[in-house]
């Protein structure tokens, strides 16, 4: 598989790795059957994402997409972050091989799950744009 320089850079030098102990929102997506698990942590002040960290168990593309997603939403408003798409992550990484596109979907879903958690913790209704399916790539729904 051939990866872009941007993917390799974010794999070898991932940005924003780790956890935020007092996170305002935490989202975890993926599962062991799919092979990739992403956990995203958000610190939000006055509706702005002031800090974002991630932990990812998965392949190089999963780590790179998580890293890029954090870079794309840091400093943005919650509404702007909700507009993050897997296509934006792919474009920012100068592409992904077809077999790894699901990693970009996971990154988008991790952001949305963390934002949904933020809304829930504040006692607010979770916007439709923050709701995600339970499975990123549907591999877990296919017969073994």
Can you walk through the features of this model?
The protein is built from five helices and three strands. The protein is an alpha+beta fold. It has a single domain, classed as Sufe protein. Chain: A, CATH 3.90.1010. The chain has a three-stranded antiparallel beta sheet. Helix 1 crosses helix 2 and helix 2 (60-73) crosses helix 5 (101-121). The longest helix is centred in the last third of the chain and has 21 residues, at 101-121. The model is unreliable at 135-144 (pLDDT under 50).
Q: What's the rounded overall pLDDT mean?
A: 90
Report how far the terminal alpha carbons are from each other: 25 Å
Q: How much helical structure, as a percent, in the residues? A: 25-40%
What is the CATH architecture descriptor?
Answer: Alpha-Beta Complex
CATH topology title:
Sufe protein. Chain: A
Overall geometry comes to: globular
If strands are numbered along the chain, what order do they take across the biggest sheet?
1-2-3
Count of helix runs: 5
What gyration radius follows from the Cα positions, in whole Å?
14 Å
Number of domains: 1
Structure class:
alpha+beta
Largest beta-sheet characterization: 3 strands, antiparallel
> Low-confidence segments, ≥5 residues, pLDDT <50?
135-144
What is the C-level CATH assignment?
Answer: Alpha Beta
Beta content comes to 15-25%
* Succession of helices and strands: HEEEHHHH
Number of strands: 3
């Amino acid at each position: 598989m051939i990866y872009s320089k941007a993917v390799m850079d974010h794999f070898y030098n991932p940005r924003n790795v780790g956890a935020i102990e007092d996170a305002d929102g935490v989202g975890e997506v993926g599962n062991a059957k799919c092979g990739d698990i992403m956990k995203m942590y958000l610190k939000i002040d006055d509706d702005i994402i002031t800090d974002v960290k991630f932990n990812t168990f998965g392949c190089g593309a999963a780590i790179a997409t998580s890293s890029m997603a954090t870079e794309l939403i840091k400093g943005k408003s919650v509404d702007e972050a909700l507009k993050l798409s897997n296509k934006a992550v792919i474009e920012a990484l100068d592409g992904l091989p077809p077999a790894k596109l699901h990693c970009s979907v996971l990154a988008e879903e991790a952001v949305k799950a963390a934002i949904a958690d933020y809304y829930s913790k504040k006692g607010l209704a979770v916007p439709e744009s923050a709701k995600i399916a339970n499975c990123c790539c549907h591999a877990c729904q296919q017969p073994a």
